Amino acid sequence: METKANNQAIETKAGYVAIIGKPNAGKSTLMNSLIGANLSIITHKPQTTRKRVLGIYTEGNTQIVFLDTPGVLTPKYEMQETMMRYVRNSIEEADCLILIYDITKFNQLDPIPEELLVFFKDIRKKTILILNKIDLLKDVKETLPIIATFDKMQLFADIIPVSALKENDLEKRLIPVISEYIPKSHFYYDKELISTQPERFFVSEIIREAILLSYHEEIPYSTEVHIVDFKERDFGKWYINAEIIVEKQTQKKIIIGSNGEKLKTVLERARKNIEEHLEQEIYLDVFVKVRNKWRDKPSMLRSFGY
Ligand SMILES: Nc1nc2c(ncn2[C@@H]2O[C@H](COP(=O)(O)OP(=O)(O)OP(=O)(O)O)[C@@H](O)[C@H]2O)c(=O)[nH]1
Ligand SMILES: [Mg+2]
Known about the structure:
Blueprint: H1 4-7, E1 13-21, H2 27-35, E2 53-59, E3 62-68, H3 78-93, E4 96-102, H4 114-120, E5 127-132, H5 143-152, E6 158-161, H6 170-179, H7 199-214, E7 224-231, E8 238-246, H8 249-256, H9 261-278, E9 282-290, H10 298-303
Parallel strand pairs: 1-3, 1-4, 4-5, 5-6, 8-9
Antiparallel strand pairs: 2-3, 7-8
């Protein structure tokens, strides 16, 4: 005998949408804009996102769980292998995909490079192609032949040119399109929730963002931030103890700078951003540690939450 609950039609829609694309295409910018919060860090450098970041959009009877993923690349070390596993898992779990593409990088001879194509072409999931950064084009008409090229491939359910950075009404334009591919389902998360990551994650990402913006060349790519202690206090400043992990002694010297001045400036910036995020004053205690080849060691990566 069917229960009453089973007989009731599901009135809500809910589903997962993986946002995939090459490094620097604007995946995190798009997700933050749709959710209306700084969930993923954004920098001008490729490979800013290293893990999978969840952003939950709930409006009326629809809940869309966005999965922001690391940019697709050919892995050179274990950490990048793990990053690509996040991409594959997100695609597997998703109800539909958003492929985001930097339109300024369009190449008629190789519109979608093979290393990106393999991720989604055989997966029979609706894929929305978002052509991003149209604000950088001299004339929006330049989008027309590009759209035609992608259209001919017959891979995409929709093709939408946008500026994830500059457009105010992105949500109004994109959510109705995405919602079409979201199945009837009960909500997965409480409708007030926008993220499931713990505060420790956001704190480590804010410190990593400051590092990405302050150091050059290999340094940000050889660096990880590990939160060792996070003490919330009823009175006074909260206490946060973080380790900045690098691969070599020489990198440690560069991170710290002469007399520690460089690191001091970087941490000052990070502290302010963390305080803004937590809406809480903090005491930030940081040590720089050398862990030889940490990016290639599965046990190290696991301890850093990969
Ligand atoms: N002009 C312009 N810049 C954009 C736009 N969208 C993103 N950007 C910039 O592109 C850079 C990369 O943006 P992200 O959102 O970090 O890109 P991502 O795809 O998440 O990059 P990874 O995490 O490294 O894979 C940043 O400097 C953004 O400000 C856009 O619509 N127009
Ligand atoms: Mg990103």
